[in-house]
Write a structure and sequence with these properties.
It contains no helices and 11 strands. It has 124 residues and is mostly beta strands. Strands 2, 4, 5, 6, 9, 10 and 11 form a 7-stranded mixed β-sheet that branches. Strands 1-3-8-7 form a 4-stranded antiparallel β-sheet, with no helix packed on it. The N and C termini lie far apart (40 Å).
């Protein structure tokens, strides 16, 4: 029904920047909240950021506030996570996710669709 494909990950030095992209296909006309999650080795999947369908509301986990703005371009069926001032502790596989909702969703179990993930590695 909905397919998500992440891209933009890679290896970057601490203090650098990356922009992750999520291409959305399928029933893109529906009202989807989009979220970004990350999972480091040996750790649980962690919420990073979410954005409503209109883009009018966003929410971030405290560890990335002011560093990782989330945005979306519905005309292009794209969602972005601009990652600035990267730290080694940001190293993880980053996942794009979607759920039909008019409200922000921050819990992984509520999301219905997931991308394959993209690796982000930040060296010190």
């Amino acid at each position: 029904q909905v397919q998500l494909v992440e891209s933009g990950g890679g290896l970057v030095q601490a203090g650098g920047s990356l922009r992750l992209s999520c291409a959305v296909s399928g029933r893109t006309f529906e009202t989807y909240v989009m979220g970004w999650f990350r999972q480091a080795p040996g750790k649980e999947r962690e919420f990073v950021a979410a954005i409503t369908w209109s883009g009018s509301s966003t929410y971030y986990t405290d560890s990335v506030k002011a560093r990782f703005p989330i945005s979306r371009d519905n005309a292009k069926n794209m969602v972005y996570l601009q990652m600035n001032s990267l730290k080694p502790e940001d190293t993880a596989v980053y996942y794009c996710a979607a759920v039909r909702s008019i409200r922000l969703v921050v819990t992984a179990y509520e999301y219905d669709y997931w991308g394959q993930g993209t690796q982000v590695t930040v060296s010190s």
